[in-house]
Amino acid sequence: MRAISIDTPHGAAVVHLHPVDQPRAALVLGHGAGGGIAARDLVAVSAAAHEAGLAVALVEQPYRVAGRRAPPRAPTLDAAWIAVVERVRDDEFAGLPLVVGGRSSGARVACRTTATTGAVAVLCLAFPLRPPRRAGAPEAPSRLSELDAVEVPVLVVQGARDRFGLPPDGPTRSVVVVPGDHALTTDLPAVAAAARAWLVGLRAL
């Protein structure tokens, strides 16, 4: 593993590169809003991607590198992510088909920026479809439009008891339900198996 710092419009991001011999593609993953790249589902999926012959990059957004837990607004997250993905796409992962994704907030960022980054597929872990309703507050809007806007193949791995809800399947979207909640830690082998099978079967790779 090798960590590199990449300048973005909103500060330095740190990218943890996990190469493989003769990669068939590359997978770039982002973390959740309040978590980091050590999240157990991200680690499990990284290992599964290695088994499928993909090099992996785990991206720490600039706000996390700076020691903050609360994320900035979506345009800031997206701009930093695009800068990172464009750098590794043109340098460390040059010539490789690129799959992007992440867990929770990181999955949303990957979906919103797919067309810009040129990714051939998107892997979403615990996509936060709709924030849980707070007492006395109106129901929050669904984020399904972010998934629906993606025109390349999408895999969503979702916990059966995820309080953010369960996205539906779509024309280019597969949803795999595994035991557990939004953390996706109840059955990590199931999470890894779903990711591995989907990556192996992607026609774009």
TrEMBL record:
Q: Where is the KANL3/Tex30 alpha/beta hydrolase-like domain?
A: 24-165
Q: Name one GO molecular function term.
A: hydrolase activity
What's one Pfam family here? Abhydrolase_11
Domain of life per record: Bacteria
Q: Which keywords accompany this UniProt record?
A: Hydrolase
- What's the name of the protein? Alpha/beta hydrolase
Organism per entry = Pengzhenrongella frigida
